[in-house]
């Protein structure tokens, strides 16, 4: 166990970049009050001879297959350091960044396939290559089983124990039937009226995007709104990024230019694109989800009622004026005839 389970000890885990760039960003920790200062180190995929430039390890393996990979741990500090080596299941954070389970959470998937020595001592400004073994269970389900491997240093800050770690992805794919699939769960569409009754409003679409397949995908989604029985249509596109199998992410988009005229149908089209080695026989097809809302355009109806009322009021006033004018003309004629008879 890497971290103490003592009830008196609070534990904090600091995880540095797991999806490390080609030139890995060093992690910085201060494991002791030594005047040597802060400890920095990097971890990279490697061959037996040293770092090989890969961002992470990505392998497609058969059930029961055993392979050996390597990691390079480089101590950039001025003193020797002891690094704890560990592997764990990988996941994506809410912001879409790759991470691995902390030491106090047991792995159940790809992290259990990796075996590495528990620790290593690396001298000042020294790089050591460490082998690790990947053993695929014979009953491994086809598809992706993401994991991560890291080198960490424990330090103390009063009663708080801090684990600082740096690592990289180990993307493991078991061979077999590979399927890329997405689903939109909890799809809702809320109409937002414009304050100006002469301008259209917008539809706010929200849903949970879930990877229901068995491989990681680049998930892309498009949304459209149709009203007036399809005569008027508005579209919007959303790029949601990487999703691991079983993973989900909240998605929302706002589609403007919608009048909200009675029946409004919102459709979401999801398109998965397999990341990594797709291989032969990979199935990836778009999926759709729909929701229909019946919207009463109260604002426009109010404006229409006011316009109709004004029309009838104006027409009534015109008729009243015409009748009054006719009456005045009739009276003038009668008065004229009466005056003419009086003169005779």
TrEMBL record:
Q: Where is this region: Disordered?
A: 24-53
User: Per the record's keyword annotation, is Transmembrane helix included, yes or no?
Assistant: yes
The signal peptide annotation in the UniProt record is 1-29
Alphabetical keyword list: Membrane, Signal, Transmembrane, Transmembrane helix
Which residues span the membrane?
291-313
The protein, known as: DUF916 domain-containing protein
